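In this supplementary section we document a worked example of the pipeline. Step one takes a protein sequence of length 313 as its only input; no multiple sequence alignment statistics are reported here. Step two produces a three-dimensional model, which step three serialises into C-alpha cells for compact storage. The input and output of this example are shown verbatim.
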Amino acid sequence: MNEYQTDFSSLFADGRMVRVMAFGDSLTSGTGSLSGWRSPFKKIMNTWGYAQWEFVGGLTTQQEDLGNFGRDWRHEGNGGYRVDQLTGIVRNRIETYQPDVLICLSGNNTTGSPDRAAAKALYDALFAEMFAADNLRVLSLSRTPINSSGVIGMDTIVEAMINGHKDACRTQQRLGRRVAHASPHDFMTARWAPQWYLSGDNTHFNAIGYAHLARGIATALVGGPRSLALTPPVQGETLASVPADVDYPGGAEVTKTAAADTVAVVHYGGSTATIPASWPVGVPWPVPVARILNAGTSLSAPLVVARHRFGVL
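The serialised model returned by step three reads:
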C-alpha cells in the first residue's frame, strides 16, 4: 500500500498532536454536502486508535460532520486545481500552517496529453516546493479512478500521470526525502463499483466512494488498526420502509424480520444482490451492505440494520 516506505505510524503513536494538511483538488475539498475523503478518514483513524492529530490549513468549507471546531474543518482542497497550480501555492501553505504530514491527492484535473516524462516533470516541480521544509513527511496520492461507462477508466493520460508520479516519488526518496506514494487505482480496485460516484459524475464520489478512498489513504498512512483485535460495536436501527436508496458508507449488517420480504442491496464490495423471501428471519445477511435499494425491496415489517464503525471493513 505504502509503495515507497516512509514511517508515518510512529509519528501518530508518539502521543503528541500531529498536524495534518489535506492538500489537493475538489476530491479533498469535497462536493455538494460532502467533505471529500476528510470526514471518513477522520472516523477511520479514530476507530483505529489514532486520535492525537488535527487538520490544518486556511480553508473551512465543506464541513459535513467533521465536528464543531475549526481544527476539524481546516484543509487545503482547491477545486479544479491542476498539479502546476498546486505547485504555485504549496510552499506558502506549508510555511503558513506548519504541517507535520501533508496528504496530497492530485492529478485529477490534467489538461493536454502529458507523457510519462512530462508528468514526472510536473511532480518534480511540486515536490521541490513541498520539500523546501526539510522536516515534512508527505503521502502523495495519484489521481483516482474514473467511472468510464460502468468500468474503471484507464487511458494513456491517466497511465502516464500515475507512472510519472511514481517516478518523481522515487527520485525524492533517492534524495533522502520522506515521501511515500499510494495509488487509488490500485487500492480501490478490489471494491470499486460505478455506484460509488455522484449521479452523472465520472470523477467525484458519493459518501460510499469517499469512504473507500479514505480507508486506502489511512492504510497507506498508518498500515491499519493499532489493535489487531479490533472488534468495535455496531449501531443498530430499523427501517420500516425504503422510499429511496439508503447508503451506509461504513458498511452495515442487514437482518429481515418478516419471511416474505425481499431486500435489494449493493454489497460493500460493489456487487448487487437481492436478499430473497427464502432467507430466514432473524439471520443477518452474510455479506456487508453499502446501499439498500428502493427498487426491488419489499417490506412488510421493519428491517434491522446494524452500522459498522468506519474502518472495520
